[in-house]
Amino acid sequence: MKELRKKLKEHVELLIARYPMLEGCEDSIIRAYFLLEESYSKGNKLLVAGNGGSAADSEHIVGELMKGFKLPRKLDAEISRKLIDESEELGKTLVENLQGALPAIALDGHPALSTAYMNDCEPLLCFAQQVNGYGVEGDVFLGISTSGNSKNILYAAVTAHAKGMKVIGLTGAKDSKLETLSDVCIKAPQTETYMIQELHLPIYHCLCLMLEDRFF
């Protein structure tokens, strides 16, 4: 475990070496990681949401968590055995190709649900509705908002806490409403939207690398 902790710290040190302006984010990145580690250790999941470029980042994060990022994620022996028992012919291919996953859902990726809800109900609650439906106690909601004041993200954060979930905010440098609603808020030290987004990517890549090392 000590060696693992050292390796996790090395990911943050490498991030800051490559992006020195993120030095002030070190503490919040580490605290966000431990929230995610605790959640995944208990069999919970991550819900992620954002708008525009941050929606694309949400999908990107899910892609890194739900399949191999840098490490091979071979299935454990028990599920491999069950797959073969279920079908020797098909199970072999499944065992050879399926990868271990950290369950994560991007809330922008359900257009039929979102458009139906926005048409029938309150458009700004489209993410909150999904948090209400998917979220359970112990899950984590990651809200990405460069301003930190996107109302649909704020509604989702409030809903997450009401469901017994933890909330991580990923914002820009300015103080924001999302920061006040978050258990941990990582504030990229820029104020221009595209510059904030350019820093969000290495931050969440670092978190994904740390989680992959911990669980795989």
UniProtKB/TrEMBL annotation:
<protein>
    <submittedName>
        <fullName>SIS domain-containing protein</fullName>
    </submittedName>
</protein>
<dbReference type="Pfam" id="PF13580">
    <property type="entry name" value="SIS_2"/>
</dbReference>
<dbReference type="InterPro" id="IPR001347">
    <property type="entry name" value="SIS_dom"/>
</dbReference>
<dbReference type="InterPro" id="IPR046348">
    <property type="entry name" value="SIS_dom_sf"/>
</dbReference>
<feature type="domain" description="SIS">
    <location>
        <begin position="36"/>
        <end position="216"/>
    </location>
</feature>
<dbReference type="InterPro" id="IPR035461">
    <property type="entry name" value="GmhA/DiaA"/>
</dbReference>
<dbReference type="InterPro" id="IPR050099">
    <property type="entry name" value="SIS_GmhA/DiaA_subfam"/>
</dbReference>
